[in-house]
Amino acid sequence: QVQLVESGGGLVQAGGSLRLSCAASGLTFSTFAMGWFRQAPGKERAFVAAITWSGGSTYYADSVKGRFTISRDNAKNTVYLQMDSLKHEDTAVYYCASSRTLASRGYDYDYWGQGTQVTVSS
After folding, report:
1. Which residues does 21 contact at the CB level (< 8 Å), separation at least 6?
2. Maximum C-alpha span of the chain
3. 30: helix, strand or coil
4. Angle CA(47)–CA(11)–CA(58) in degrees, nearest 5?
5. CB under 8 Å, gap of 24 or more: what pairs does 54-63 form?
């Protein structure tokens, strides 16, 4: 059974930083691309960042480029999202997901975590 478990969310002031983690089990983690998505209240789920199975390539939404960094540790079956210079509009539930390819569309992802809340106070 595939499980993706996010952690690291919380309340932070604007301009601050958080690092999200997503621990994977039940799949050959090193063969999957991984992505982060977010959903703010009343809005559709949106792509944030993705990384290839090797970590050699990454892809970011324009809204987070230069502020967020996605990385992975295949030895720990974990993908990370370092979020710096946080803004109030980054407030959302953040989800990690696995995919066969580096992608920004949600339907390209097979498995999803339950999400972790990030709240940025202005």
Report:
1. 6, 7, 8, 78, 79, 80
2. 40
3. helix
4. 30
5. 54/30, 57/102, 59/102, 59/104, 61/104, 63/89
Q: Which residue has the tokens 């990384």?
A: 51
User: Which residue carries 């989800």 as its tokens?
Assistant: 95
pLDDT tens digits, one per residue of 88-121: 999 999 999 999 999 999 999 999 999 999 999 9
The string of DSSP codes covering 47-115 is EEEEE-TTSS-EEE-TTTTTTEEEEEETTTTEEEEEE-S--GGG-EEEEEEEESS--SSGGGEEEE---
Alpha-carbon dihedral of residues 96, 82, 10, 2, nearest 10 degrees?
20
In this structure, the strands spanning 3-7 and 18-25 are: antiparallel
Main-chain dihedrals φ then ψ at residue 29, nearest 5 degrees:
-55, -40
Closest CA to 88 of 39, 9, 16, 6: 16
- pLDDT confidence band for 122 (50 / 70 / 90): confident
**What phi and psi values does residue 66 have, to the nearest 5 degrees?**
90, -10
